[in-house]
Specification:
The protein has about 375 residues and is of the alpha/beta class. The protein has an 8-stranded parallel beta sheet. Strands 1-2 form a two-stranded antiparallel ribbon. Helix content is about 30%, strand content about 15%. Mean pLDDT is about 95; it is low at about 265-275. It is globular, with a radius of gyration of 19 Å. It is built from 12 helices and 14 strands. Helix 1 (about 40-45) runs parallel beside helix 2 and helix 7 packs parallel to helix 8 (about 280-285).
C-alpha cells in the first residue's frame, strides 16, 4: 500500500533509502547561546531512519535568531555543539541537512541587543512572540538598506561554511513561513521601490543571491530550498502567488539543486494558513528537480501523491515527534503514536516529550 514511499531516491548528491523525509521542526532544546545540547544528538539519531533529516531551523546570525533555546551556527561553539549531532546521525546510518534561518521581522529586540529586527520594509508581524522574559508584542522592523545586503549574504555563506565544518551533508535555505526571504518574496511585506522590490523578478532577487552563496560553498547538489507558496504565513502573503512563486521556481531552476521543498499546510496548519489552491503545479512547470511536499500528510496521502507524480518525496514533521521510527511504522501499517503534552512539550527545554518516545518494537515489548 505504501510501496511508493520506500523507493530510494537521489536528492542531488544524497541517496535517500526511502521517500519519508523528516521536516524541519523547531524544538527549542539548545542553550541560550544557541549551542546544541547532548539530548539533541540523541533525538536526531533516534530518527535517522528517515530518508533524509532536515534539521530544525538554525540561526545564521544573532540578528536573525529570535526563538528561545533555538540553535545557531554562526559561532565556533555552535559548530562544535553540532558535531556530536551529525556524528550520531551518521553512526545510526542517517543523513542530515542543516536548515539555515534568518527570521527577519519576527526577531524581537530582546534577542538583538535592543535593536529592531530587519526586513524588506518597515512592517510589523501580527500578534506576539515569546522571549526569555515572557510574551511580548512584535515590534516594527527596520528595512534593510541595499548597502547591507552583501553583509547579509556573507552571513549566509559563513553559516554554510560552518555547517560543512560541523559535519552536515548539505544545507537548506529557509525561504518560507514568513521569515526573512519570504518577507522579501511576497508583496504584503515587501513595499520596496528599489531593485529588491516591486516586480516578482526584483522580489525574488534576495532568494536568488542567497542560494548562489550556498551553492558556492556546497555545490548545487547539496543545497535545497524551502518555500511556502500557499496562503498567509505569520502575516506574509501575496495577491498573485502563482506569479510570485513561478518566478521563484525559475530563479532556482538554473542551479540544479538537490531538491525544492514546499510547505503546503491545510487550514489547520501551524500558522493558521487559509485553505487556498495548491501551487505545486506552478512549481512543477518551472522547476524540474526533485520536489518534496510537506505538511499535514497521512501515510496514505503521501503514497498517493508520490505515485501520482505530484511530488518525489514527502517530508513529515509532527508525526516524527512521537514516532522516532516513523518509516518502520508506516511500512508495517502500524498505528502512529499520538503526540502527548502538545504543544507544551514541543518547545520546553527538557528531555520529556523529546527523547522519551519509544519505537514500535519498544512499545510492543
Amino acid at each position: 500500500m505504501h510501496d511508493a514511499l520506500f523507493q530510494p531516491i537521489r536528492l542531488g548528491a544524497i541517496t535517500a533509502p526511502n521517500r519519508i523525509l523528516m521536516a524541519p521542526l523547531t524544538r527549542a532544546r539548545a542553550g541560550m547561546d544557541g549551542v546544541p545540547t547532548d539530548i539533541m544528538a540523541t533525538y536526531y539519531a533516534q530518527r535517522a531512519s528517515a530518508g533524509l533529516i532536515i534539521s530544525e531551523a538554525t540561526g545564521i546570525s544573532r540578528e536573525g535568531l529570535g526563538w528561545p533555546f533555538a540553535p545557531g551556527i554562526w559561532s565556533e561553539a555552535q559548530v562544535e555543539g553540532w558535531k556530536p549531532v551529525t556524528e550520531a546521525v551518521h553512526e545510526a546510518g542517517g543523513r542530515i541537512m542543516c536548515q539555515l534561518w534568518h527570521m527577519g521581522r519576527i526577531v524581537h529586540p530582546d534577542f538583538n541587543d535592543g535593536q529592531p529586527g530587519v526586513s524588506a520594509s518597515a512592517t510589523t508581524a501580527p500578534g506576539h512572540t515569546h522571549t526569555y522574559e515572557g510574551r511580548k508584542d512584535y515590534v516594527e522592523a527596520r528595512p534593510l538598506e541595499v548597502s547591507e545586503i552583501p553583509r547579509l549574504l556573507d552571513d549566509y555563506q559563513r553559516a554554510a561554511e560552518n555547517a560543512k565544518a560541523a559535519g552536515f551533508d548539505g544545507v537548506q535555505l529557509h525561504a518560507a513561513n514568513g521569515y526573512l526571504i519570504d518577507q522579501f518574496l511576497r508583496r504584503s511585506s515587501n513595499l520596496r521601490e528599489d531593485e529588491y522590490g516591486g516586480s516578482a523578478e526584483n522580489r525574488a532577487r534576495l532568494l536568488d543571491e542567497a542560494t548562489a552563496r550556498l551553492v558556492e560553498v556546497w555545490g548545487a547538489d547539496r543545497v535545497a530550498v524551502r518555500l511556502s507558496p500557499n496562503g498567509d504565513s505569520q502575516g506574509v502573503d501575496d495577491p498573485d502567488p502563482a506569479g510570485t512563486f513561478s518566478e521563484a521556481a525559475r530563479r532556482l531552476e538554473k542551479y540544479g539543486l538537490a531538491f525544492l521543498e514546499l510547505r503546503q499546510p491545510g487550514p489547520d496548519g501551524t500558522f493558521g494558513q487559509t485553505d487556498v489552491p495548491q501551487q505545486d503545479g506552478v512549481i512543477r512547470e518551472n522547476f524540474t528537480g526533485p520536489l518534496v511536499l510537506n505538511s499535514d500528510y497521512t501515510p496514505e496521502q503521501a503514497a498517493q501523491d508520490i505515485a501520482a507524480g505530484r511530488g518525489d518525496a514527502i517530508s513529515f514533521g509532527r508525526p516524527f515527534i512521537s514516532n522516532p521510527d516513523l518509516p518502520a511504522r508506516i511500512r508495517q501499517g502500524a498505528e502512529l503514536a499520538p503526540n502527548v503534552n502538545v504543544p507544551q512539550s514541543w518547545y520546553t527545554p527538557v528531555p520529556e516529550g523529546y527523547i522519551d518516545y519509544p519505537t514500535l518494537a519498544e512499545a510492543q515489548a
